[in-house]
Amino acid sequence: MEKGPAMTAFSLEPAQLAWCAELRTLAAERLRPLAGKGEPGRVNRALLAELGGLGLLGRLFSSGALDLCLMRESLAHGCTEAETALALQGLGAHPVHAHGTGSQRARWLPRVADGTAVAAFALSEPGAGSDAAALALRAEGDGPGHWRLTGRKCWISNAPEADFYTVFARTAPGAGARGVTAFLVPADRPGLTGTGLDMLSPHPIGALDFDAVPVTADDVLGEVDRGFRVAMGTLNLFRPSVGAFAVGMARAALDATLAHTAGRDAFGGKLRDLQTVAHTVAEMALRTEAARLMVYAAATAYDTGAPDVPQRAAMAKLLATETAQYVVDSAVQLHGAGALQRGHLLEHLYREVRAPRIYEGASEVQRGIIAKELYAAHQEAR
Ligand SMILES: Cc1cc2nc3c(=O)[nH]c(=O)nc-3n(C[C@H](O)[C@H](O)[C@H](O)COP(=O)(O)OP(=O)(O)OC[C@H]3O[C@@H](n4cnc5c(N)ncnc54)[C@H](O)[C@@H]3O)c2cc1C
Questions:
Q1: Which atom of ligand 1 is nearest to the CA of 132?
Q2: What is the fold of 5-114?
Q3: How far, rounded to the nearest angstrom, does the alpha carbon of residue 260 sit from its chain's CA centroid?
Q4: Which of 96, 373, 85, 63 has the alpha carbon at shortest distance from 230?
Q5: What are the boundaries of each domain within the chain?
Q6: Lowest-confidence region among 5-19, 50-64, 114-128
Q7: 193-203 residue pLDDT tens
Q8: pLDDT for 253-303, tens place per residue?
Q9: Which residues participate in catalysis according to the annotation?
């Protein structure tokens, strides 16, 4: 029987499984030590250069959503810092890859792929998070094909240290999602400044201030007033992969819990001998596996151009991030006090696992997308 895409969503090919195992080893043995040398909250350029040298950043643009998910899941298992550094290069540079002109692509993508140029995706603002279409950063006309950007972006991962930003700005006041344009803004443009933010999430993140920053038609990504599509298209690709990041963390927490409960003496036996402990471990594995399958199915839907990508991407992100929160929390519980000690894997994962339920669309926003798609399909079927 010929193997179609629907089947590959349920079982990976042997070559894919081998690649994932190789990535997990790389993460634990080569990337983890480099991540450990980085400064908290700062871009780790040595780590990025290694990801580039290994050819992983290049794969962001040469392969599909399923490969992206496999990379994120496998790297997250052993080194969340490497996982996030890779993902942020993809998020910031995907609009350039998908919508950039020849010269924009030639200038930036090779440097993104070798890890020498740091990318960032700047959509959120103090007054426009979930309701991204309400964004207010002004792009005011300054002669034909020229604009000045004025306003603020916040919670931008890799800011203010990135080398360029995909910035979503309002070119048509009052037009909602239809009046937004995506611009590629190099970090050295006059009037662009930024500050770091100290967040619970361990990766670099900051705010950007735009004081009449000049941009031209050469900096536009895609079409003027059509930038919201650029943003949503990027999120449709990256949402399942946020789920993959979550699955990688859940699997790391599960593995640590299996090792701990099998070895820890308690009440004349091991922790695993207590039925409530064993059943919790089973529940952690059950939910992680369900999330993993849903992530692969959403990525496969993206790669095959299925019509239900927004719904599947939302479902995968929602289920996987909520599951990872449950699994990491349960892992902490089953480890006891040691897990809360600064530097313990689970103390780290406990901080990492929270933010993905908020960024790239909070869980409630994903439910909104799923319901909207369901009712649209229902209407169509009538
Ligand atoms: C670690 C981290 C990294 C980030 N990186 C980036 C980045 O690189 N680029 C970028 O542009 N942004 C980034 N963000 C911002 C992120 O996308 C926003 O935080 C997110 O969109 C939510 O916006 P908000 O925080 O303003 O919350 P709000 O929009 O104010 O929402 C607050 C809460 O209200 C509820 N809510 C909101 N909308 C609905 C709804 N429709 N239905 C029901 N309930 C709802 C939810 O519980 C939600 O969590 C990052 C955020 C974090 C925490």
A1: 21
A2: Butyryl-Coa Dehydrogenase, subunit A; domain 1 (1.10.540)
A3: 29
A4: 96
A5: 5-114, 120-225, 229-381
A6: 5-19
A7: 999 999 998 89
A8: 999 999 999 999 999 999 999 999 999 999 999 999 999 999 999 999 999
A9: 360
